[in-house]
Amino acid sequence: MSSNTPSIGIIMGSDSDLPTMQGAIAICEEFSVEYEVAIISAHRTPERMVDYAKTAHQRGIKVIIAAAGGAAHLPGMVASLTPLPVIGVPISTRHLQGIDSLYSIVQMPRGIPVATVAIGNAKNAGLLAVQILASSQPELLQQVQQYRQDSAQSVLEKQSRIENLGVKQYLANNNDD
Using one digit for the tens of pLDDT, what is the confidence trace for 130-175? Predict the structure, then answer.
């Protein structure tokens, strides 16, 4: 990440969410999209959350990715305070494996949408944020299209390996995915 103005804000309620959010960070870096990372707790630092959400668009942020576990109020509260699109990442929890987080984020009232990805799937949140930006940036759109082509090619190559090796040998030798 350079000193240019970030387009994507990646926020989370706790530093314990950072390992999960590495997926979104990696996508931003892969597509050379500027981002910022902040720990902002809806419950422990509510004034910081309000300030961040209300000013993000004025600072050049175009999309916010917000992760939270448990009660998972951060994505919804940020969405209620900003005109920007917000993508929620439910964090897996010890007792309910993230189902509580998912329900908290996805069950937003009418008029305050939060796009929500699968539990722990920050990589998809990063991809969605990049696609939102790509809708108005032709060069980024080309990168997204190439990413999709590369992904499809990877699947085809894996199928070819299964056909050549057989399932048992493929599984014995396969260390990716």
Answer: 999 999 999 999 999 999 999 999 999 999 999 999 999 999 987 6
Question: CB neighbours (10 Å) of residue 135?
Answer: 10
The pTM (predicted TM-score) of the whole model is: 0.93
Question: For residue 36, what are its two tokens?
Answer: 């910022």
Q: In degrees rounded to 5, what are phi and psi of residue 121?
A: -95, 65
CB 64 within 8 A of CB 11: yes
Tens of pLDDT, residue by residue over 92-140, are 999 999 999 999 999 999 999 999 999 999 999 999 999 999 999 999 9
Q: What is the CA radius of gyration of the chain?
A: 18
- Rounded to whole angstroms, the Cα distance separating 34 from 137 reads 14
- CATH number given to 8-134: 3.40.50.1970
What is the residue extent of each domain of the chain?
A: 8-134, 138-173
Q: Cα–Cα–Cα angle for 150, 151, 152, nearest 5°?
A: 90
Closest C-alpha to 86, from 62, 121, 50: 62
